[in-house]
Write a structure and sequence with these properties.
Layout: H1 2-5, E1 12-15, E2 18-21, H2 32-35, H3 47-50, H4 76-89, H5 105-143, H6 145-153, H7 158-176
Antiparallel strand pairs: 1-2
């Protein structure tokens, strides 16, 4: 916003009917992924300043709050405790609370769908591969019919023939893998 309006720290701007002084620039937003949208805010203000009459019109969204924890408590347990406390204190508030674990619900849904798609593709590939292996084994056994008949004529049982060709198929599968 500063570059677009050719402003610098110390300049004053008017938002709605309220005047603000630019005091600092936010270098990085930890939840930037969650803020990527057409309605993303370009300016931040302390809550009391935003509550001034005329600051926000009724159509504006002045209800997004970001909480910065002290550096010594900015771990996952502190974030979880803060979220749990907020939900327990006002369970009917209808808040959507996001933390770094769930910064973008849309992205989480997209990743979940992509995972389901890849699972489906993997199962389909496994099925096609299984059909291919079954056809290869059937072809191998069909080519060995004369040998199987000779084994049977010499007194081999069905179990013996099965064991011989199962061993061959397993060895071929290991070599193929």
């Amino acid at each position: 916003m500063l570059a677009r309006l050719d402003l610098k720290i110390g300049d004053r701007v008017t938002i709605g009917n309220a005047r603000f002084e630019i005091r600092s620039v936010v270098g990085a937003e930890p939840d930037k992924l969650a803020a990527v949208s057409a309605s993303a805010r370009d300016s931040w203000s302390a809550r009391p300043a935003c509550a001034r009459p005329g600051c926000c019109n009724p159509a504006a969204s002045c209800t997004d709050y970001r909480v910065k924890l002290p550096d010594n408590t900015a771990d996952d347990r502190a974030v979880t405790a803060l979220v749990d406390d907020a939900r327990n204190a006002l369970p009917q508030a209808g808040w959507e609370i996001r933390s770094r674990d769930n910064a973008s619900p849309q992205l989480e849904r997209t990743i979940s769908r992509f995972t389901q798609f890849l699972t489906l593709v993997g199962l389909a590939a496994l099925l096609v591969g299984g059909v291919g292996v079954a056809n290869a084994v059937k072809s191998h056994i069909d080519r060995r019919r004369d040998v199987i008949a000779a084994f049977k004529a010499l007194g081999a049982t069905g179990r013996d023939v099965f064991a011989i060709y199962l061993t061959q198929v397993v060895v071929l599968a290991v070599i193929g893998s």
